[in-house]
Design a protein that fits this description.
The complex is a heterodimer.
Chain A: H1 2-27, H2 44-53, H3 60-72, H4 88-123, H5 128-142, H6 145-160, H7 175-201, H8 204-211, H9 216-242, H10 248-253, H11 262-269, H12 272-300
Helix pairs in contact in A: 1-12, 4-5, 4-7, 4-9, 5-7, 6-7, 7-9, 9-12
Chain B: H1 2-22, E1 40-45, H2 60-69, E2 74-76, E3 82-84, E4 87-92, E5 98-103, E6 108-110, E7 116-119, H3 127-133, H4 151-162, E8 178-182, E9 185-189, H5 197-200, H6 211-217, E10 234-240, E11 244-249, E12 263-268, H7 272-281, E13 287-289, H8 292-300, H9 302-305, E14 309-310, E15 314-323, H10 335-346, H11 349-358, H12 361-365, H13 373-376, E16 388-389, E17 392-393, H14 400-404, H15 411-431, E18 438-444, H16 448-465, E19 470-476, H17 482-485, E20 494-500, H18 526-529, H19 536-554, H20 559-575, E21 579-585, E22 589-592, H21 623-641
Parallel strand pairs in B: 1-12, 18-19
Antiparallel strand pairs in B: 2-3, 4-5, 5-9, 6-7, 8-9, 10-11, 11-12, 13-22, 14-22, 15-20, 15-21, 16-17
Helix pairs in contact in B: 10-15, 11-15, 19-20
The chains are: A mainly alpha, B alpha+beta.
Chain lengths: ~325, ~650
C-alpha cells in the first residue's frame, strides 16, 4: 500500500505542476485594467509602475520560474489586490480554520443523521419513513437553498433569540449556519445510502441468505449496510478535507469570515497570487481526498487490494 | 410700553442667539426626534477593504480608517465648507505659489490600544507626500501631489529607476516643495498657482502620517489596524477582515466635543443589501438602503412608510449620456453596418440634437427615483452646487447660467432636428450602401434598474422619433470588465457614462472631455487608433472647445474669470449636443436613525466618510422631517457660504 500511495503521490505532483502552469498562464491573459481601481485617471507611468512592481512586465517564463522557485521555498507570496501586502499564508490560515470548524461540525451532524435516515428509508421501502424521507430529499433538491437558508436565518434567529449574524462570542449564533450546512448533506447521504442499500437487497447473495434463514437484522447489518457503505466511505476523506473550502452562501449570509466564495472573489479582483495559492490548495486537497478515500475503502472492504495479484483479472 | 416691547424683543433675540450658538439645538433633535441613549453606529458592509493604507489606496471602501483615524489640514463641514482641522489657519503668498499652514498644537498620536505615541507636528504632513511621490510605493495618490513643486518630477525620476532606465533628473526628496519650517509651521511650494489646492488636501496623500510610524512598520504599514497610528476623531481598535471593523472615539482629539457617536461597529455581510432592511426593522443596524424593489412594499405599509426618506443629493459624481464619436461596436451580428451608420449619424449635429431634445430624461430617471427625479436631473456636466465663489455657484457663470434654466426635452424641436438630419444624412448613408433607421447600440452592466432605464429610453425615443429614423438596441454586457469592454474600447453608440470629482474646481471634470479621453473620443484619434471617423465639422467643434478649456485652465488667479471661461466652454459643448447631461448622484431611498444633514457635505475628497458631528436618534427620519431639514440646511449653508 505504501508503494501504491507513493506512486499516486508522484503522479499527483506532476498533475499539480501542470495545473499551476496552466492557471498561471491563463491569469496572465486577463486584461490589465483589472489590476487597477482607478484606471481611467491613472497616467501611463503609474500604470507601468504597478505592472513592474507586480512583475507583470517580465516574460511569462521568467514570471513562472520565479513563482515556482518561491513555491519550492514554501512562499505563496503576498496578496496584491484582496488584502494588499498581506502574506497569503496569514490570510488563508485564519479562514481555513473557521470554515473547517463549521464544516466538521455540520458533517458531524449530517453524516450520522443522513445515514440513519438512509437506513430507515431502505428498511421501510415504500412505507411512511421512506415517503417522508423522499419528500425531504425532493424538497432539498428542488428548492433553491438560498430560499430556505434565508427562511432559516430570519425565523430561526427570532426563535432562538439571537443575532442573525454569527458572533464568535455567542455560540447560539453558530447553530443556524451549522444547521443550514447540514440540511443538504443529510439529504445527500440519505439518498445515496438508501439507493445503495436497496440495490444490495436485490442481489442474489442476499436472497440466498434469506433462503438459508439468516435473521433479517444480521442481513441488514452485516451484509446490506456494510457493502452499501463502501462507496460512501471513499468520499468521506475528501468531504472532510474540502470543508476548508467553506460554503459561499451560508458564510455570506451569516457573516462567517471563512473560505466560502474566496476563490470567486479573488478571481474577480485579479489577485493572481491569491488565485494561484487557492488553486494549489484545492488541488492538493482534491488529490489527497481521493488517495485517502481509496485507502479507507481498502480498510473497510478487505476484498479491495492495491497490489497486483497473480492470476487476478 | 416701549420698554416692555424692547425687553421682550431682547429676550427673544437672546433666545434665538442661544439657539443659534448651540448650532446643534435643532440638529440634536434630528427633525424632532429623540437622541438615542446609546450613541453606537452599527452597520453592515458587503465590500471588504483591500488595505487600510490611505496613502496607497484611492478606493472608497479603503478610506474610512484614514478619514476617521487621522486628520487633514482642512476638512469639509456639514455645509461643504472647508474648516480648520489639523491646521488652525493658513496664508497664501501673493503669487499663489506658497501656502503656509499653522499646525494645531497639543495633538498626539495613539496606537490601536490608545497608547501615546508622541506629538503631531508639521512633519506629519511632509511624510505622506514623500511616501506618495516615491514610485516604488505604488501610491494611487501620487498625482494628487503633483501641484507641489518638483513632486511630479521626483515621481517620474523614481519611476525611471523602477523601470531600469536612467532618470533625466537627480532630485532628492528635499527638493519636493513641502517643508516643515518648524514643528507647527508647514509650507507648500507649488508649481503653479492652484486655486483649488485647499480642496485637494482632503485626499489620502495629505492625511497626517507619522514618519516614525512608517519607519516602524515598513511594508506592513496599514495592512492591519495594529500597524498604524491614529490622531483623528476615532481609533480603530478591532479589524477582522470580512468580520468586523470597530472604532472607538478618541477622547483626546482636538474637536472631540463634536464627536457624538462613541463607537462604530461595521459588520461584514456579503448579502448586506438583502439583510440590512430586516435588521434595521429589528434595531440591529442604524440605517439601511431601501432598494427600488422594496420601496413600494415599504411605502404601502403605514409604519414602514414613516421610516423611508430620500438621501441627500450629492455633487461628487456626474452622469451623462455620451455619444461615441469613434464607434467600435463588436457585440452584434452586423457590427460593420452599425459602426458605419452611427459614424455618419453622430457627426451630424442635427441628429445629435434630435436625440438631445427627444430624450425624456425625467421619465428615464423615474425608474430608480420615482419621487425625486427632478432633484437629480442636471443640465450641466459639473453639477450645480459643486463649487461656488463668494456664494455664486459655478453654474450661474457665463453661458451655462442660461442653459441651467432650459428644459432640454422638447418634442417639437426634436422632430424638427430629426427632419433636418434625415435630409442631410440620407445621401451619405446611401453612398455607403445603407439607409435609415440608425441603430443605436447602448450597453448596460446587468443592473436591473439600468436595464429598465434603457428600456424606457428606447420606447420613448422610438415612439417620438419613429422607428424609421432610429432603433435602440439594448445589450446587457454584464458587470465583469464592463468599462473595459464597452466604454474604454468604444463598444457602444450611446451610453450612460459617469465621472467623479477630485478637487473643488471645474477643471476636475475635464478628464472626461479632454483629448485622449476614453469616454466619447471626440477628438482626432489618428494618433491613438490610426483611424479617425470624425468629420471636419465635429473636429472644429471639439477643437474650439479644447481652446476654450485651455484658456480657462490658464486663468489661475481670477476665480470669477476662471469659472466664467469654464462655464462658457461647457455650455458651448452642450449646446452643440456633444453630450447629454443627465444626473448627479445620491437621491436613493434609505431608512436611517442618523440625520443626513449633520454629516460632512464634501463634493470631493474623502471627508464625507467621517462620523464627526453626527448623532444617532431613537427613530428613523421620515420624508417630512427630511424635507424640513433640507430647507433649513440650505438656508444655513447659504448664510455660512457668504
Amino acid at each position: 500500500m505504501l508503494r501504491y500511495s507513493f506512486n499516486r503521490l508522484l503522479r499527483s505532483l506532476l498533475t499539480l505542476v501542470i495545473i499551476i502552469a496552466v492557471v498561471f498562464s491563463l491569469l496572465r491573459l486577463m486584461p490589465i485594467e483589472g489590476y487597477f481601481d482607478n484606471f481611467d485617471k491613472m497616467s501611463p507611468t503609474q500604470i507601468q509602475n504597478k505592472l513592474t512592481l507586480m512583475g507583470l512586465n517580465d516574460p511569462l517564463y521568467r514570471q513562472l520560474g520565479r513563482f515556482m522557485w518561491r513555491l519550492l521555498h514554501g512562499d505563496l507570496g503576498t496578496s496584491t489586490r484582496y488584502r494588499v501586502g498581506v502574506p497569503i499564508t496569514g490570510i488563508l490560515g485564519k479562514k481555513i480554520l473557521i470554515s473547517f470548524r463549521f464544516g466538521i461540525l455540520a458533517m458531524a451532524v449530517s453524516l450520522p443523521l443522513g445515514m440513519l435516515l438512509g437506513v430507515a428509508m431502505a428498511r421501510g421501502k415504500g412505507k411512511l419513513a421512506d415517503k417522508l424521507g423522499n419528500a425531504y430529499i425532493v424538497f432539498i433538491q428542488a428548492v433553491p437553498n438560498a430560499v430556505y437558508f434565508l427562511f432559516i436565518q430570519l425565523y430561526g434567529a427570532m426563535l432562538i433569540g439571537c443575532s442573525m449574524l454569527y458572533k464568535a462570542t455567542d455560540l447560539r449564533t453558530a447553530i443556524l449556519p451549522i444547521l443550514s450546512l447540514a440540511l443538504p448533506s443529510i439529504a445527500g447521504y440519505a439518498m445515496w445510502l438508501r439507493r445503495y442499500m436497496v440495490d444490495e437487497t436485490n442481489k442474489d447473495y442476499i436472497k440466498l441468505a434469506r433462503a438459508k434463514g439468516v435473521p433479517e437484522s444480521v442481513i441488514w447489518r452485516r451484509h446490506v449496510f456494510r457493502n452499501s457503505v463502501v462507496p460512501m466511505v471513499q468520499l468521506i476523506p475528501g468531504s472532510i478535507l474540502m470543508t476548508i473550502s467553506g460554503s459561499i452562501y451560508v458564510e455570506s449570509l451569516y457573516s462567517i469570515p471563512g473560505m466560502g466564495g474566496l476563490l470567486v472573489d479573488v478571481i474577480k479582483r485579479q489577485d493572481n497570487n491569491m488565485v494561484q495559492a487557492l488553486v494549489i490548495l484545492y488541488s492538493i486537497m482534491g488529490i489527497l481526498g481521493l488517495l485517502l478515500g481509496d485507502i479507507l475503502m481498502g480498510i473497510v472492504d478487505p476484498r479491495i487490494s492495491f497490489v497486483k495479484k497473480e492470476g487476478s483479472r | 410700553m416701549k420698554k416692555w416691547i424692547a425687553i421682550l424683543l431682547s429676550a427673544s433675540m437672546l433666545a434665538a442667539m442661544l439657539a443659534g450658538c448651540g448650532g446643534d439645538t435643532q440638529r440634536e433633535n434630528g427633525g424632532g426626534r429623540e437622541l438615542a441613549a446609546e450613541q453606537i453606529y452599527r452597520t453592515l458592509y458587503s465590500s471588504e477593504s483591500s488595505t487600510l493604507n490611505y496613502l496607497y489606496s484611492t478606493t472608497e471602501v479603503d478610506m474610512s480608517t484614514g478619514v476617521n483615524g487621522t486628520m487633514t489640514l482642512y476638512a469639509s463641514d456639514h455645509y461643504g465648507i472647508l474648516q480648520p482641522n489639523g491646521a488652525t489657519s493658513y496664508e497664501v503668498s501673493d503669487d499663489g505659489l506658497t501656502w503656509t499652514f499653522h499646525i494645531r498644537e497639543d495633538q498626539r498620536w495613539y496606537d490601536y490600544q490608545g497608547n501615546d505615541m508622541g506629538p503631531v507636528t508639521a512633519n506629519d504632513w511632509v511624510a505622506p507626500v514623500y511616501w506618495c511621490v516615491e514610485a516604488a510605493n505604488d501610491s494611487g495618490n501620487s498625482d494628487s501631489c503633483f501641484p507641489i513643486k518638483n513632486a511630479e518630477a521626483y515621481y517620474n525620476q523614481t519611476s525611471a529607476v523602477l523601470s531600469g532606465e536612467t532618470p533625466a533628473t537627480s532630485l532628492t526628496l528635499a527638493d519636493v516643495g513641502v517643508h516643515a519650517q518648524d514643528d507647527y509651521t508647514l509650507v507648500f511650494e507649488l508649481e503653479h498657482p492652484t486655486p483649488y489646492f485647499l480642496s485637494i488636501l482632503e485626499f489620502g496623500c495629505y492625511f497626517a502620517t507619522s514618519q516614525a510610524c512608517l519607519d516602524e512598520f515598513g511594508e506592513r504599514f496599514a495592512t492591519d489596524n495594529e500597524y498604524m497610528w491614529y490622531c483623528g476623531p476615532y481609533i480603530m481598535d478591532q479589524f477582522e477582515p470580512q468580520e468586523i471593523h470597530h472604532y472607538v472615539k478618541n477622547e483626546n482629539w482636538w474637536n472631540a466635543d463634536h464627536v457624538y457617536i462613541t463607537e462604530i461597529e461595521s459588520k461584514y455581510n456579503a448579502e448586506a443589501s438583502t439583510l440590512q432592511p430586516t435588521m434595521f426593522l429589528q434595531g440591529e443596524v442604524s440605517e439601511t438602503g431601501v432598494s427600488a424593489d422594496l420601496l413600494s412594499e415599504w411605502q404601502n405599509d403605514p409604519e414602514k412608510a414613516k421610516m423611508i426618506t430620500t438621501t441627500r443629493v450629492q455633487t461628487n459624481y456626474s452622469y451623462f449620456w455620451g455619444f461615441n464619436f469613434e464607434p467600435r461596436v463588436t457585440d452584434t451580428d452586423h457590427n460593420d453596418e452599425i459602426n458605419v451608420k452611427w459614424s455618419i449619424a453622430v457627426n451630424n449635429e442635427n441628429f445629435r440634437k434630435s436625440i438631445f431634445h427627444g430624450m425624456d430624461r425625467k421619465r428615464a430617471l423615474s425608474v430608480s427615483y420615482p419621487t425625486n427625479a427632478d432633484e437629480l436631473m442636471i443640465n450641466s456636466l459639473v453639477p450645480p452646487a459643486f463649487v461656488a465663489n463668494n456664494g455664486r455657484d459655478y453654474t450661474e457663470y457665463g453661458d451655462l447660467a442660461a442653459l441651467m434654466k432650459e428644459d432640454f426635452f422638447d418634442e417639437a424641436k426634436a422632430k424638427e432636428y430629426r427632419d433636418k438630419a434625415m435630409e442631410e444624412m440620407r445621401p451619405l448613408l446611401q453612398a455607403r450602401g445603407y439607409d435609415f433607421p440608425i441603430e443605436i447600440v447602448t450597453q448596460y452592466n446587468g443592473s436591473s434598474d439600468w436595464g429598465q432605464e434603457c428600456m424606457v429610453i428606447k420606447q420613448q425615443l422610438e415612439a417620438l422619433l419613429g422607428t424609421d429614423y432610429i432603433t435602440v438596441t439594448i445589450l446587457n454586457f454584464g458587470s465583469s470588465g464592463f468599462l473595459a469592454g464597452t466604454r474604454r474600447c468604444g463598444n457602444y453608440c450611446m451610453q450612460k457614462l459617469n465621472g467623479g470629482a477630485d478637487y473643488m474646481d471645474p477643471e476636475t471634470w475635464t478628464f472626461i472631455t479632454e483629448p485622449g479621453n476614453n469616454y466619447c473620443f471626440a477628438y482626432d484619434t489618428t494618433e491613438k487608433y490610426e483611424v479617425n471617423t470624425k468629420t471636419a465639422e465635429t473636429l472644429a467643434i471639439a477643437n474650439e472647445f479644447f481652446a476654450m478649456q485651455d484658456a480657462a485652465k490658464a486663468e489661475r488667479l481670477d476665480i470669477d474669470r476662471r469659472y466664467e471661461l469654464f462655464a462658457d466652454a461647457e455650455a458651448f459643448y452642450i449646446n452643440h449636443a456633444m453630450m447629454i447631461p443627465y444626473r448627479c448622484t445620491g437621491g436613493g431611498y434609505t431608512a436611517t436613525t442618523l440625520d443626513p444633514f449633520e454629516s460632512p457635505a464634501s463634493s470631493c475628497g474623502w471627508t464625507y466618510l467621517s462620523y464627526v458631528n453626527q448623532h444617532i436618534y431613537t427613530t428613523a427620519m421620515s420624508q417630512e422631517m427630511f424635507d424640513a431639514r433640507l430647507v433649513e440646511w440650505e438656508a444655513e449653508r447659504a448664510a455660512a457660504s457668504k
